[in-house]
Amino acid sequence: MTARRVYLAGPDVFLPEAEAWLARKKAICAAEGFSPVSPLDPLPGEPEAWSALPEWRRIALRNEAHIRGSDALIANLTPFRGPSADPGTVYEIGFMRALGRPVFGYATTALPFVERTLNCLGLSREGVVSDAEGMAIEAFGLFDNLMIEGGIIGSGGVLVVEDCQAAGRWTDLRVFERCVREAARILA
Amino acid sequence: MTARRVYLAGPDVFLPEAEAWLARKKAICAAEGFSPVSPLDPLPGEPEAWSALPEWRRIALRNEAHIRGSDALIANLTPFRGPSADPGTVYEIGFMRALGRPVFGYATTALPFVERTLNCLGLSREGVVSDAEGMAIEAFGLFDNLMIEGGIIGSGGVLVVEDCQAAGRWTDLRVFERCVREAARILA
């Protein structure tokens, strides 16, 4: 059987020495029998016409093509500069979900979405249901916005979260490893 | 010709009296010849089995079905509790983009992503390329994460941003109106 291609979504691309970092994540995937794809990988057969586009458009098109070429997606949902996950990662989860393929998520914190939102807004928990602008605070007891968790669960994937930051919240790989093992088990 | 169905993505669902608010946005769409769909609309023919699911899962599945049933999507990208758009909205943009249909976006601020990110991090502009955790700051001169703008442009849609907050950043409809007119012109 050909190894399943799994796309590694996440703000890991913003880390220093991201290429080397993603090589470590790839090695963990390979050990579980996956063929991992990173957002930094070149796209085989990339259309010649793309060379005329600005870099950001090439990156966007390449990542979309990588996702289309993958069988599953594993997303780093560790909160990024606010209560929620990195928006590029969230976009990619929605994209893969529309393709009808399994999406898995993980995070190195287990603090619920509602608490992270209140912390970000500087509000205390007791009875707060909306922010200073009157916008409701989503409180379904989930880890992030309901579309994200709904998409993951609806796709047949799982969300693995754990306060596990021995090596730092971006560089502790234990929750990622658990998530990859879960993905391997579910997709077996 | 049947009117094109357009899905109204955005954190508008969190506004007080969201139903009445979305009725106003729908009226603007209808005036341009669209058949608007709101995330709060019931889903015709909703599967009976969904009634056993928790509310958040029903909402997620219903919104995905609404998007699949629409010809285009118009997203409110006004920054939401951080430098970026509401994550539910970003998920929906990625979802529609994967379906290959046009996505339009608008926001009531024109401040670029890099400046909003630096403001959020409490950093000054001069020479800053990464945050306190060493994570790079995306600086392509775009309005938000490159996947969002790449998806919109790649889909044939446009992004309309303008500092236009006479009635408040969530309740000024002028940029939305411009975006709906642009969508009508492009899809004509």
Q: Unreliable runs of chain A, pLDDT <50, ≥5 residues?
A: none
Amount of beta strand of chain A: 5-15%
Describe the oligomeric state of these chains in a short phrase: homodimer
Number of helices of chain A: 6
> What is the total tally of β strands of chain A?
5
**Widest sheet, order of strands of chain A:** 2-1-3-4-5
Task: Output the structural class of chain A.
Answer: alpha/beta
Anisotropy-based shape of chain A: globular
Q: Could you please describe the fold and organization of this structure?
A:
- 2 copies of one chain form a homodimer.
- By secondary structure, chain A is α/β, with parallel strands linked by helices.
- Chain A has 6 helices and 5 strands.
- Chain A has helices at residues 18-31, 55-68, 87-98, 113-121, 146-154, 174-187; strands spanning 5-9, 35-37, 72-76, 103-107, 159-161.
- A 5-stranded parallel beta sheet of chain A has the order 2-1-3-4-5.
- In chain A, helix 3 runs parallel beside helix 5.
- Chain A starts with a strand and ends with a helix.
- The interface between A and B is large, with 60 and 60 residues.
